[in-house]
Structures are given as structure tokens and as C-alpha cells.
């Protein structure tokens, strides 16, 4: 019992810190120690948050941000995995594409926003491209690494059972490289969320990023913090969902490591 | 049951990195004929290129010279009807598939219903005594059990020739003895041709009809010796026969008297 209780006690202590900070802030605002116009009381932010949700104003911006992000995330990831498998399996393809990758990859992607706005305007195309670019490279690099690490014994085994290069890629290489691919997907999930918010802030007409800037510009500070909280919760939920998916798909990878 | 097929190696040579300083002449000039349904073992000192030899026979790597043929058809890549049993069974099983899923991999290209494939593979799992472990994962099994999964998978492909690359070298002695018996029984039942590469002289004599002795690199076949021991073989009684001991003495003498590899 004691052993089982211990981790829970640890989590309890971790939650206690933010609660204590919020309580301190609440008291400070109540005493007038902090400028209420810039930092509203946590209770006021909470009331605003409840109001946003209960009046149904959450769904449209959330839907905007999520659909934009996932469209770009899924398309760029699928493309990166396909290109990564080809580059990982074919020396010729790697030599052909590697210099291009190394030129674009190190660029901080937000720096590409100004030229992209020139070419694509401030519509959804531009946002899809910038999020897609941010997502593409981590998935690509990790896929290449994973594909190169695939045990040649597995590939030879499939060859002796008559499997050709195409079926070896889908049945052997892809699943064997999946732990690496997921590492890339996890990095890209964080980057994708950052870029979608930045793009919305700069050139948005809806979405959570746009709202945070819009509320700040119109001095609706309480609302701004409420949307910030929503964004934090979204990031937490996405990460949680990702870990659940990873546990379900890669159970064999972790078990194998444990077994030695 | 279809018969085993004939494997012919004609003046096969293999040179790695030819024309460079790192040039290695792995195989000298190997000519060998494995008869249909025969069990032939290749023994040789470690590092003599036994695995290279087997991989060339399987069409996994190309020879530098000479020809490999299966029933008279030239081997350019892994041919149909040939299955290779790897030494590293842990690495040849897919950890993301169940035991049954690994066996089914052997015949997923074949035209048959899912149920039919499943039944067939369950039969082969039963043959190696693993029918109760079908839904486990390879990493949940012991080393000997994993190699039995690999054997069941090899059999599911209905091979006409089975190449065994030291498949019993990394399990404990008792498990090895069990696997010897299993392979002997399956070979007798199913009539495929078998070629085993090993450094274990006892194993080679117990299982084989003939034994080919390889020299140090660049390897050549020094001699081919028929074992002339009665079948069916018994893993306990056969090694006690005077003819077994005599052959064992001779082979060990041959393998140890050669100069140590530089």
C-alpha cells in the first residue's frame, strides 16, 4: 500500500505548487498589489473561461486551429515518411536529396513567414505550408535514421520468403522503423502547434492564436488569459493522446528493450 | 509431398573489395552437389567463410565467379522453394507480430483465405509444440522456443530445400539436443533437402548423410565424407556407435591439425 501511495503523493506535491501560486496571485490581486488591468484575478479568468465554453464560443476557434494543424501535420508526416523510407533505403536518393534537406532543415521556420506571405498571401494556404514545413523535417530525419537501423537479418529473412522491395518496405522496414518515426512525430507535434499559433497571430482571421492577439489588442485581458489557458490545455491533451497512441502501437518496442 | 530439390555449386568464388588493399578472398573454388532429399553438413574452422558460402547458395549475395543452380535453374536471387534458417533467430523474428503472425509471414503472398492460412500455420506451430503460444510475442519466449518459431515459419513455406546457418549455436546444450531431434524428425517426415553449416562436429555427424569439410580462407572443400550411419538416427544412441566415434575422431583431427588462421 505504501509503495502504491508514494507516486500519488509525488503528483500531489507537484500539483500543489501551481495551486499555491494561483492562490497567492488571487490574494495579491484582491489586495491591489497587482494592476488588475494587466493581471486579472485567476477567479475572473476562470469565470471567463466558463462563459466562453457555456456560450459555445470555444468550438469555432478550436476547430479552426485543430483542422489547420492536423491537415498540415498529417499531410507533411505522410510525405516525410514516404520520402524518408526512400532516402533511407536508396543511397542514390539520399545523395540526391540530402543537400536540399540540409539547406532548408536548419532554418527556423517562422523566418519563412514573411516570404511565404508574399507568395501565398495570408490565407490558409500559407498557414498550411508553414506548419507543414515545420512538421516535415523532424519526421523525415528520424524516419531516415530508423530505416537505416533496420536489422539486415529481417530484410534477408523477408527476401528468402520471396518478398520484393515494395512489400519489404511496408511489411518490414516501416514497422521496424516505427519507434524512430514516432520520435519524429512527437517533436513535430510540438512544432506544429507552435507554428499554427504563430501563423494565426501574424495572419489570422480565426483560431486560437488570432484570438489571443485580438483580445490583447482590444484590452480584453481576462479573455486573453482564458484563451491562453485553453491553448495550454490543448497542448496537454494532444500530448496525452499521442502518448496513448504510442503505447498502443509500440508496446513491442518497449517490451523488447526490457527483455534485453 | 514434393521431393527435395538438387542444389549445385559450380566453381563458386567470392572476393570482397577486389583490387583494393582490403581485398579478402573468402571462397576459393567451391564445387558441390547436394542431392535431392539429402542432409549435407558443411563444417570448417571459424572465420572460414561458411556463412558467406550459405548466403551465396541462398541467392542472398552474389558470387564473384561460378554458378549456383537449383534443380538446374540458375540462382540469381532468393529462389522459390528455398528457405533460410538464420543463426540469429531473435533478430529474424518480427517483434511487432505474434508468434502466429510471424509464421503467417511465410505464406502471406500465397492465394488462400485468412482462415485457411491461419489453420495451416497453427498446424506447423503444433508440429514444433508451440500451438499454445500462438498469440504470444517472440520476446515473451525463451531462445529455444524462438528458434522453434523460426523453424515453424520455415516449414510453413513448404521448402524443397532448407539452408541452416548455425541455427543451434546460441542455445543451451539440452535445448540444442531437442532442436536436433525436432529437425531430424521434420526432415524425415517432409523429405526436403537440407544443407547445414556448423562448427559443431557432433551435430554434423548426428544429422547428416554427408559432411563437406572446408579449409581456411580462401575456403575450398577439402573432402566430402559420407557418414554411413543407420537411420532413423537417435540423439542418444547414435553418438555411441563406434562408426560415429571413429568419424568424429577423424574430423576433429582434420579440423585441428590445420595451421591456425593468421
Automatic annotation (TrEMBL), chain A:
Indicate how the chain sits in the lipid bilayer: Multi-pass membrane protein
InterPro entries according to UniProt:
MetI-like (IPR000515), MetI-like_sf (IPR035906)
Keyword Membrane in the entry? The reply is yes
Q: Where is the ABC transmembrane type-1 domain?
A: 62-242
Keywords in alphabetical order: Cell membrane, Membrane, Transmembrane, Transmembrane helix, Transport
Please give the name of this protein: ABC transporter permease
Taxonomic source organism:
Arenibacterium halophilum
Q: Does the keyword Repressor apply?
A: no
Check the record and name the CDD domains matching this protein: TM_PBP2
Query: Which family would the database say this protein is a member of?
Result: Belongs to the binding-protein-dependent transport system permease family.
Localization terms from the record: Cell membrane
Q: Where do the TM regions start and end?
A: 6-25, 66-87, 128-148, 168-185, 192-213, 225-245
TrEMBL record, chain B:
Task: Please give the Gene Ontology molecular function terms for this protein.
Answer: ATP binding
What high-level taxonomic lineage is stated for the organism? Bacteria, Pseudomonadati, Pseudomonadota, Alphaproteobacteria, Rhodobacterales
Question: Could you tell me what this protein is called?
Answer: ABC transporter ATP-binding protein
Domain ABC transporter span(s) in chain numbering: 7-241
Hey, which family's this protein in? Answer: Belongs to the ABC transporter superfamily.
Among Gene3D superfamilies, the record links this protein to: P-loop containing nucleotide triphosphate hydrolases
Print the keywords alphabetically: ATP-binding, Nucleotide-binding, Transport
Amino acid at each position: 500500500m505504501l509503495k502504491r501511495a508514494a507516486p500519488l503523493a509525488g503528483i500531489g506535491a507537484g500539483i500543489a505548487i501551481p495551486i499555491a501560486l494561483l492562490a497567492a496571485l488571487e490574494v495579491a490581486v484582491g489586495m491591489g498589489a497587482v494592476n488588475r488591468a494587466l493581471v486579472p484575478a485567476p477567479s475572473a479568468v476562470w469565470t471567463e473561461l466558463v462563459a466562453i465554453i457555456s456560450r459555445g464560443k470555444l468550438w469555432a476557434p478550436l476547430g479552426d486551429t485543430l483542422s489547420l494543424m492536423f491537415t498540415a501535420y498529417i499531410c507533411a508526416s505522410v510525405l516525410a515518411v514516404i520520402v524518408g523510407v526512400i532516402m533511407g533505403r536508396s543511397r542514390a536518393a539520399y545523395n540526391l536529396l540530402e543537400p536540399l534537406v540540409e539547406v532548408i532543415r536548419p532554418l527556423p521556420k517562422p523566418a519563412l513567414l514573411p516570404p511565404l506571405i508574399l507568395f501565398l498571401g495570408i490565407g490558409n494556404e500559407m498557414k498550411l505550408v508553414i506548419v507543414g514545413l515545420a512538421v516535415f523535417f523532424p519526421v523525415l530525419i528520424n524516419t531516415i535514421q530508423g530505416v537505416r537501423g533496420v536489422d539486415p537479418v529481417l530484410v534477408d529473412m523477408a527476401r528468402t520468403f520471396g518478398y520484393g522491395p515494395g512489400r519489404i518496405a511496408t511489411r518490414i522496414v516501416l514497422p521496424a522503423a516505427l519507434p524512430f518515426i514516432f520520435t519524429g512525430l512527437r517533436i513535430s507535434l510540438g512544432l506544429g502547434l507552435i507554428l499554427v499559433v504563430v501563423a494565426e497571430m501574424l495572419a489570422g482571421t480565426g483560431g486560437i492564436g488570432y484570438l489571443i492577439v485580438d483580445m490583447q489588442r482590444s484590452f480584453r485581458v481576462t479573455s486573453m488569459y482564458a484563451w491562453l489557458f485553453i491553448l495550454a490545455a490543448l497542448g496537454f491533451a494532444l500530448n496525452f493522446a499521442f502518448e496513448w497512441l504510442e503505447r498502443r502501437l509500440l508496446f513491442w518496442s518497449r517490451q523488447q528493450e526490457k527483455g534485453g | 509431398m514434393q521431393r527435395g530439390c538438387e542444389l549445385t555449386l559450380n566453381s563458386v568464388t567470392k572476393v570482397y573489395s577486389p583490387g583494393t588493399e582490403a581485398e579478402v578472398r573468402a571462397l576459393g573454388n567451391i564445387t558441390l552437389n547436394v542431392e535431392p532429399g539429402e542432409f549435407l553438413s558443411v563444417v570448417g574452422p571459424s572465420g572460414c567463410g561458411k556463412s558467406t558460402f550459405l548466403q551465396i547458395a541462398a541467392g542472398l549475395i552474389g558470387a564473384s565467379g561460378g554458378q549456383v543452380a537449383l534443380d538446374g535453374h540458375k540462382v540469381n536471387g532468393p529462389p522459390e522453394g528455398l528457405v533460410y534458417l538464420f543463426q540469429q533467430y531473435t533478430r529474424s523474428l518480427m517483434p511487432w507480430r505474434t508468434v502466429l503472425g510471424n509464421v503467417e509471414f511465410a505464406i502471406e503472398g500465397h492465394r488462400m483465405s485468412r482462415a485457411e492460412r491461419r489453420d495451416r500455420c497453427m498446424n506447423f506451430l503444433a508440429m514444433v509444440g508451440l500451438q499454445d503460444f500462438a498469440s504470444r510475442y517472440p520476446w515473451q519466449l525463451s531462445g529455444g522456443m524462438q528458434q522453434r518459431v523460426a523453424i515453424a515459419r520455415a516449414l510453413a513455406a513448404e521448402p524443397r530445400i532448407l539452408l541452416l546457418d548455425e541455427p543451434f549455436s546460441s542455445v543451451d546444450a539440452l535445448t540444442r539436443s531437442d532442436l536436433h531431434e525436432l529437425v531430424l524428425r521434420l526432415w524425415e517426415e517432409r523429405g526436403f533437402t537440407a544443407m547445414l553449416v556448423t562448427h559443431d562436429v557432433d551435430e554434423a555427424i548426428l544429422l547428416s548423410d554427408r559432411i563437406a569439410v572446408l579449409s581456411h580462407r580462401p575456403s575450398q572443400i577439402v573432402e566430402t565424407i559420407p557418414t554411413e550411419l543407420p537411420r532413423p538416427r537417435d540423439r542418444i544412441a547414435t553418438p555411441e556407435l563406434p562408426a560415429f566415434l571413429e568419424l568424429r575422431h577423424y574430423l576433429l583431427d582434420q579440423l585441428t591439425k590445420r595451421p591456425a588462421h593468421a
